[in-house]
Design goal:
CATH architecture of the largest domain: 3-Layer(aba) Sandwich
Number of helices: 7
Oligomer: single chain
Strand content: 5-15%
Number of strands: 10
CATH superfamily of the largest domain: Periplasmic binding protein-like II
Number of domains: 3
Radius of gyration: 27 Å
Structural class: alpha/beta
Distance between the termini: 70 Å
Shape: flat
C-alpha cells in the first residue's frame, strides 16, 4: 500500500497530478509491490523519486520524520497517523495442509463454514481490522473540499459550534459542566481527522441553543434543528401509525398477552 503522513493535504488520493514529483520510500525486500507501483505510476503518468530502506519499519519511521512524501509498504502493516492513498495486488489468504490429508482439510473447511453460520460478518471484521484502507483515519473528501479545509486551516479559522444541552445521550453537560455525549465525541474525532479548529459555544438550555442558531451565532450545529418538544411544534409534522402500546399500571408495557395488574 502507498501511504502519506496524516495531515498531508498536498497529495490527494486519486488526483494523480498531485502525486507528481513526490519522494517515495521503497523496501529492498518488497520486489512484488515495488514493481506494481512502478507500473501504476507509468499507467497514471506521474513521476517520483525512489528512496530505498531495509525494512517497512524504517520506511514508516522515515515517513513520520518527513524524509519521504509517501511510503510503499506491506498492506498488512498496522498504520499510525497515516492516510492510505492506494493499495496494490491484494490477494486472498489460504490455509494449507499436506497433500492427501483430506481429514484435516475437511475439518478446516467445516470450521470455516461454522464460523460463517455463527458469525456471518467475521471476514468483513478481519478485513476492516487488518486490511481495510478505512483504518487510515482519512476522510473521504473531494479535491475541492480538501482545498477548502486547507485554506481555512491556514487562515487560522476557528469554527463556532452550537450544542444542544437537552439531547442526552447525544449532547449534554456532565456534572462538571463540560460538554460530552455521542455527538460531541464523534464531532471531535471528525474535527481532528479533518484538522480543523473549533470552539463549543455555551448553552445551558434548549432555548439558548436555538438562540445561537436563529441569530447566526454558530457556524455549525451538533444537533437537530427541529424542536419537537412541544405540541405546537407538531403543526408541520405528521405522526406514523402506532408501533408500540403501553399498558397502564404495568411495568412490562407493550409485551403481548400482558395484562395490567388489578388495583
Amino acid at each position: 500500500m502507498l501511504t502519506v503522513r496524516a495531515g498531508n493535504r498536498t497529495v490527494i488520493a486519486g488526483e494523480y497530478s498531485t502525486y507528481n514529483g513526490m519522494t517515495v520510500g521503497f523496501s529492498h525486500d518488497g520486489n512484488g509491490r515495488n514493481q506494481s507501483f512502478i507500473e501504476f505510476a507509468a499507467d497514471h503518468n506521474f513521476t517520483y523519486t525512489a528512496v530505498f530502506y531495509d525494512t517497512d519499519d524504517e520506511l514508516a519511521e522515515a515517513l513520520h520524520k518527513g524524509e519521504i512524501t509517501a511510503a510503499l509498504t506491506n498492506a498488512n502493516r498496522i498504520t499510525t497517523d497515516e492516510w492510505v492513498l492506494e493499495t496494490f495486488d491484494e490477494t486472498p489468504f489460504y490455509m494449507a495442509v499436506r497433500k492427501g490429508d483430506t481429514q484435516t482439510l475437511a475439518l478446516l473447511n467445516g470450521a470455516l463454514a461454522e464460523m460463517d453460520r455463527q458469525e456471518p460478518s467475521w471476514q468483513v471484521d478481519l478485513h476492516e481490522r487488518y486490511s481495510s484502507t478505512s483504518r487510515s483515519s482519512t476522510l473521504a473528501l473531494t479535491a475541492e473540499e480538501q482545498a477548502y479545509l486547507y485554506d481555512t486551516n491556514a487562515g487560522g479559522k476557528v469554527w463556532t459550534v452550537a450544542v444542544n444541552p437537552d439531547r442526552y445521550p447525544y449532547s449534554y453537560k456532565d456534572q462538571k459542566g463540560n460538554w460530552t455525549g455521542i455527538s460531541v465525541k464523534l464531532f471531535d474525532l471528525l474535527a481532528r481527522r479533518a484538522g480543523i479548529y473549533y470552539r463549543l459555544l455555551d448553552a445551558d438550555t434548549r432555548d439558548d441553543y436555538m438562540d445561537l442558531l436563529q441569530n447566526g451565532k454558530a457556524d455549525l450545529s451538533l444537533a437537530f434543528f427541529n424542536d419537537l418538544s412541544t405540541p405546537s411544534s407538531w403543526a408541520t409534522s405528521s405522526l406514523t401509525r402506532t408501533f408500540r402500546r403501553a399498558s397502564p399500571g404495568c411495568g412490562c408495557a407493550g409485551i403481548p398477552r400482558c395484562r395490567p395488574s388489578a388495583r
